[in-house]
Amino acid sequence: MSAFDARWMPLSQLRYACSGHSLFDWLADNSSLTQRLIAHCGSKFEVKVRDQRWRTPLFSESRLLNMKIGEYAMVREVELLCNGIPHVYARTLIPKRSLSGRASHLQGLGSKPLGALLFSDPTTRRSVIEYARLVASHRLYQWAMDSMSERADELWGRRTLFCYAGKPLLVNEIFLPAISENKQR
Q1: Would you say the C-alpha torsion 112, 118, 120, 123 has a positive or negative sign?
Q2: Residue of 169, 156, 162 whose CA lies nearest to 27
Q3: Which among 139, 137, 40, 37 has a CA at the least distance from the CA of 93?
């Protein structure tokens, strides 16, 4: 773990670290975040693509994806919005070896939600789910807060290693302050 990367933990530690936190239910829910946000926002849900390009993953991301240090992955960064307000920053990493065969279309999602695709495919598997508290020195915090006008003291996030079409991809979901402020259900 570098100073720029968060300390990721399993669910058992999350219960201890933030069980009283307003985000605990969001973090611990293992259903589709896309579907939950649609229910939360009503018809005012949208995906805004911030960036998509080949990048070097963070060390812990490379390790989870079983990639060599310095190897590139397709990195897709999006904001999940309710009523035009960003509620979640999502960063998906797809190694080059995962963009072949049935999974090759993942690089052309545009503003379609990845979660809807993953959870609609019965062959998709989740293997690793981890959680972290992010602070200003962490890269994921910095990237998540990049378009925000006000800074939060901390953010909480989870990341999931999926196996889609037999190939690995990593999804980071960082919960932005608006998700706690918006009490719709």
Answers
A1: positive
A2: 156
A3: 139
| Integer Cα distance of 54 and 57 in angstroms | 9
**Residue 14 φ then ψ, to 5°:** -60, -40
What one-character-per-residue DSSP string does 13-24 give? HHHHHHTTSTTH
- Distance of alpha carbon 128 from alpha carbon 126, whole angstroms: 6
* pTM of the complete model: 0.90
- The one-digit pLDDT tens for each residue of the chain (185 residues) are 456 888 898 877 777 666 556 787 888 888 888 888 988 887 789 999 999 999 999 999 999 999 998 899 999 999 999 999 999 999 999 999 999 888 888 888 888 888 888 888 888 999 888 999 999 999 999 999 998 888 888 999 999 999 999 999 999 999 999 887 754 43
Contact 103, 24 (CB under 8 A): no
